[in-house]
Amino acid sequence: MKVTIERAQLAKSLAHVHRVVERRNTIPILANVLLRASKSNVELKATDLDLEIVETAPGEGKQTGSTTVPAHMIYDIVRKLPEGAQVELQSAADGTQLQVRAGRSKFTLQALPETDFPDLAAGEMTHSFSIASADLKRLIDRTQFAISTEETRYYLNGIYLHAIDDKLRAVATDGHRLAQAEIKAPKGTKGMPGVIIPRKTVTEVQRLIDDAGDEVKIELSATKIRFSLGNAVLTSKLIDGTFPDYARVIPAANDKTLIVDKGEFMSAVDRVSTVSSERGRAVKLALTDGKLTLSVINPDSGSATEELEVEYGAEALDIGFNGRYLLDILQQVEGEKARLKLADPGSPTLIEDMETAGALYVLMPMRV
């Protein structure tokens, strides 16, 4: 193969695909990116056997063909080349090397043939629909922070995407907090299986979505999902497990309503948390009529309190929350005010955005 491509185009595409490649690989070919040149473009492909990304970049192919080279190395080379450079990629006749030329720079990389490169065969996709990029971004942004990192409960290591009534809903939980966001169901989602999209896939979609144009095409089956985002196509295996019945933990009868100014509340939580020595030490909320007192006590370094004027008219209540988790949820609130529906110090609290429908959050309390 022999192809010329503009440095910025190549760097951008490599930036997208090289992230899928794990830095430590026992299988050499999985450390590589596949480059396939045609007359008018270069196709780049990378996989970790669970996730595959294919991106197309415009290029001038003088000789069609393909090869694979170390993904992280070629990305580092290309991003260090001067702005505006024309990059020439040429593979050796025997396919064992790839030359990268730009101006006076020349690099020779060890290559492996395309025949060894694995293909994440998608099989038949049973459902297909298009979703506005802004809607998909919102579903991910509102829920991604609550994905569990605990590998033992692997079925919580992703976002549960499913159609319910006339809505497309995304849910994530780590057992301490739950995030739910929904939009009007796009045409084509009816009857789709509920799927758990892995954390790594969610992160890559989040990174690619800004270059995806107005719409993203989603195809899925019970075992795989594919996202077409602009020039990139991301195919991923799904988490093979059953997502818990999350509706059971969303409180329906919490009768104490607290309304706070989101900005003031976040700043106060952040300030009093400063004296916490360990991440996630409980912030105590003491509620009385129209007043909220936040406090943190750390036996090793001291204590902090702050008072806020709030809208609260129910009976006095003391309740504690993980300060980090509380801030994570409040960051997702789009409006100026947040509504907290509380029951008692031991029951989950429901947090809602007062100005934007379609998202809710549940937070388990901590003992204080």
Helix/strand layout:
Elements: E1 2-6, H1 7-18, E2 32-37, E3 41-47, E4 51-58, E5 60-63, E6 65-70, H2 71-80, E7 86-91, E8 97-102, E9 105-110, E10 127-132, H3 133-143, E11 158-164, E12 167-173, E13 177-184, E14 195-198, H4 199-208, E15 215-220, E16 224-229, E17 232-237, E18 256-261, H5 262-272, E19 282-288, E20 291-298, E21 302-309, E22 311-312, E23 317-322, H6 323-330, E24 337-342, E25 349-353, E26 359-363
Antiparallel strand pairs: 1-5, 1-7, 2-3, 2-6, 3-4, 4-17, 7-8, 8-9, 10-15, 11-12, 11-14, 12-13, 13-26, 15-16, 16-17, 18-22, 18-24, 19-20, 19-23, 20-21, 24-25, 25-26
Question: What is the level-2 CATH architecture name of the largest domain?
Answer: Roll
Percentage of residues in DSSP E strands: 35-45%
What is the CATH topology assignment of the largest domain? DNA Polymerase III, Chain A, domain 2
Oligomer: single chain
**Structure annotation, total helices:** 6
Strand order of the largest sheet: 14-11-12-13-26-25-24-18-22
Helix/strand-derived category reads: alpha+beta
Termini gap:
66 Å
Largest sheet, in brief, is:
9 strands, antiparallel
CATH class of the largest domain: Alpha Beta
As for the number of domains, it is: 3
Q: How does the overall form come out from the CA principal axes?
A: elongated
> How much helix is in the residues?
10-25%
The CATH superfamily label of the largest domain reads DNA Polymerase III, subunit A, domain 2
Instruction: Tally the beta strands.
Output: 26
The whole-number mean of residue pLDDT values reads 94
Low-confidence stretches: none
Rg estimate, integer Å = 25 Å
